[in-house]
Structure prediction request, 93 residues.
Amino acid sequence: MEAMRQSSTLAKKERSKKLRCKICDKEAIRNTYCKSHHKAYENIIKQYEVWKKALEIPWKEYLSEIAENQLTGEWAKEVARYLVKDGEEQNVT
Ligand SMILES: [Zn+2]
Prediction:
């Protein structure tokens, strides 16, 4: 019930303005991210599947790893940092 109340409050707040990317404040294509950050987010999810198989790394640790990794692109880093900070629970299996 608590969660439902929260999401309706959020919906009301977001209806009053255009959807913005939670990271860079550009126009969002989905609920959360702009085109570039959404693409980076999808890559992060996809890449996690690979890492998890090889390393059995927890989601949060994985995010910290890619946020620090020199080879990670800037978009993906920003998404990773955002997700770490946000502490979002992901149902990636
Ligand atoms: Zn963005």
Notes: The chain has a mean pLDDT of 84.
